Amino acid sequence: MKFVIAILIFVLDRWTKWLIETRFGPWDTRVVIPGFFNIIHSENPGVAFGIFADGVTPVRTLALVGITIAAVGALGWMLWKAKDSLSSTAFALITGGALGNLYDRIHAGAATDFLDFYSGRYHWYTFNLADSAICIGAGLLMLTMLKTHKAT
């Protein structure tokens, strides 16, 4: 079941990005909730929150792909070894999200981001379903660490 979650996250991520890529032009924006939420088509050549997005070079993209492949391998191993359901779910979310963004990086050299939350002129970084899964999975891992720490 734990690998099904990772595959489901990957498939949902690819589907949502495909919808944006085929129905929106670059930087097209649709207001969903005025003053709070837009759907926007942007491409992020970096990693989460635009880190390493400046100075796009083939070497940098190759390095990010290599690092992500190694991380996905390590995550897959941890997912395989996870014993409790909370850790399994966390690793599955992170693995599925990492696979979604890895696919983008290999296929297009950038990840498609489209969820834009803001208040007034203050915008959070635009992100996608894969990024959401990674953050939720990381939060669940922190929760398992706190549970483990309290149990000892």
Tertiary shape: globular
Number of strands: 4
Helix content: 55-70%
- Radius of gyration from the CA trace? 16 Å
Helix segment count? 4
Q: Mind describing the biggest β-sheet? A: 4 strands, antiparallel
Give the DSSP E fraction (strand runs of 2 or more residues): 15-25%
Structural class: alpha+beta
The helix/strand series, from N terminus to C terminus, equals HEEHHEEH
Count of separate structural domains? 1
Oligomer: single chain
What is the first-to-last residue Cα distance? 29 Å
Report the average pLDDT across residues.
88
- In order across it, which strands form the biggest sheet? 1-2-3-4
Instruction: Give start-end ranges of low-pLDDT stretches.
Output: none
3D architecture notes:
It is a single chain. Helix content is 61%, strand content 16%. With 152 residues, it is α+β, with helices and mostly antiparallel strands. The protein has one domain (2-131). The chain has a four-stranded antiparallel sheet. α2 (58-81) runs antiparallel to α3. The model has no long low-confidence stretch (mean pLDDT 88).
Distinctive features:
152 residues, alpha+beta, four-stranded antiparallel β-sheet, 4 strands, 61% helix
What is the strand and helix layout of this fold?
Layout: H1 2-23, E1 29-33, E2 37-44, H2 58-81, H3 85-108, E3 111-119, E4 122-123, H4 129-151
Antiparallel strand pairs: 1-2, 2-3, 3-4
Helix pairs in contact: 1-3, 2-3, 3-4
